[in-house]
Amino acid sequence: MSQIRVFVYALIIFLSQFLVVTSTTTFPCVSDDDCPVPLPPPFAKCVDGICEFFIKAQVEK
To answer: Residue 51: helix, strand or coil by DSSP?
Structure first.
């Protein structure tokens, strides 16, 4: 009986990861100033009327 409970818990945890990844919120915009200010490291840019969030890659010298 406890094995079934552990299996169900593991299944819920596994499937909830897909819900987090697939849920997205779009912000309409006209310019980059319309996009919300995210916390570092990502930054927002207005692309085709929708705010897109990017992560700057650090280049090592």
So the answer is: strand
